[in-house]
Amino acid sequence: MPLISSAYTAPFYLFNAHLETVVPSVFRKVPGTYQRERLELADGDFLDLDWMQQQRNKLVIVSHGLEGNSERHYTKGMAAYFFSNGWDALAWNCRGCSGEMNRLPRFYHHGATEDLAAVVAHALKKNYSQIVLVGFSMGGSMTLKYLGERLPPEEIKSAITFSVPCNLGSSAAELDKPDKKFYLNRFLKKLEKKIRAKAIQFPDALSAEGFETITTFREFDTRYTAPLHGFTDALDFYTKASCYPYLQSIALPVLLVNAQNDPFLPEDCYPVELARHHPCLFLETPEHGGHVGFSLAGKKTNWMEKRALQFALQNHR
């Protein structure tokens, strides 16, 4: 306990993990618009927050994945689904992910919980009495680490996370495997654009020269993520930024959903034994789902949205 059996099954036409992952990412479009607000941070940088508001006292805060943003299908879909069910929704963009480059040499990473903390603190000023956190992949890792490393405000009632790389080092190594290079190359292509823009902004802090020689996440994280964010190297980053060491300390209801066929996640990203003896961490491992997929045949919504709202409604404090 609490290990949860799952009833999710993938549509018949998404017959492997790669299709389950890629098809919704490429083809799913979520209509609707946000109201944008810029949050100024204490270090001189900023975060762009995208709101769906209807003057309710309950709020979902949605955190996106690596090189994602508030417009990604999973982020906007979750915000829109909660909004359609009577909640306000806030989908925030990590530094440099909102369409405008942030001001500082640093950008974001899996363990950068200080930014999520700033978003939560800002939302609390708007007098919400009930807040639920939802995070996807990197955003899920950040959410779990945030909840485990501090005592969260009492207004936060629960959290729901999907496709979380609980151990960053092993997940990075998984994506460095030859049969996963498709995903790695997509990430590196996006990150290269960001690094080249950063190098123009801050030529004394980093250089994009030779970026094309990077072929693994470990190389990228050693060259850029670690020095820009105060880590010694990639291993130091993976050790300190992973959410796994913080799971034991979580003290409110949390649902972690990692599909068994997630192409990004090796075995140690499924904390089965920890969840078995943890009073608050609910682990659900559907056989299917891919990475941030979980499509439903013939539906505009996906299973993640329905599951997240269900868990939120079940776990009031």
Describe the structure.
This protein has 317 residues and is α/β, with parallel strands linked by helices. It folds into two domains: 3-167 and 246-314, Alpha/Beta hydrolase fold, catalytic domain (Rossmann fold), CATH 3.40.50; 168-241, no CATH class. The protein is 36% helix and 15% strand. It contains ten helices and nine strands. It has helices spanning 17-27, 73-84, 113-124, 138-149, 168-175, 181-201, 217-228, 234-241, 272-276, 303-314, and strands at residues 3-4, 35-40, 46-52, 58-63, 88-93, 130-136, 156-162, 254-257, 281-284. The protein has a nine-stranded mixed β-sheet with strand order 1-9-8-7-6-4-5-3-2, with helices on both faces. Helix 4 (138-149) links the parallel strand 6 (130-136) and strand 7 (156-162). Helix 2 packs across helix 10, helix 3 packs across helix 4 and helix 7 (217-228) crosses helix 8 (234-241). The longest helix has 21 residues, at 181-201. The two termini are 19 Å apart. The relative contact order is 0.19.
CATH superfamily grouping of the largest domain: Alpha/Beta hydrolase fold, catalytic domain
User: Overall pLDDT, averaged?
Assistant: 95
Evaluate the radius of gyration. Answer: 18 Å
**Major sheet details:** 9 strands, mixed
- Helical content stands at 25-40%
CATH third-level topology of the largest domain: Rossmann fold
Uncertain segments are: none
Shape: globular
Write a short abstract of this structure.
It contains 10 helices and 9 strands. By secondary structure, it is α/β, with parallel strands linked by helices. The chain starts with a strand and ends with a helix.
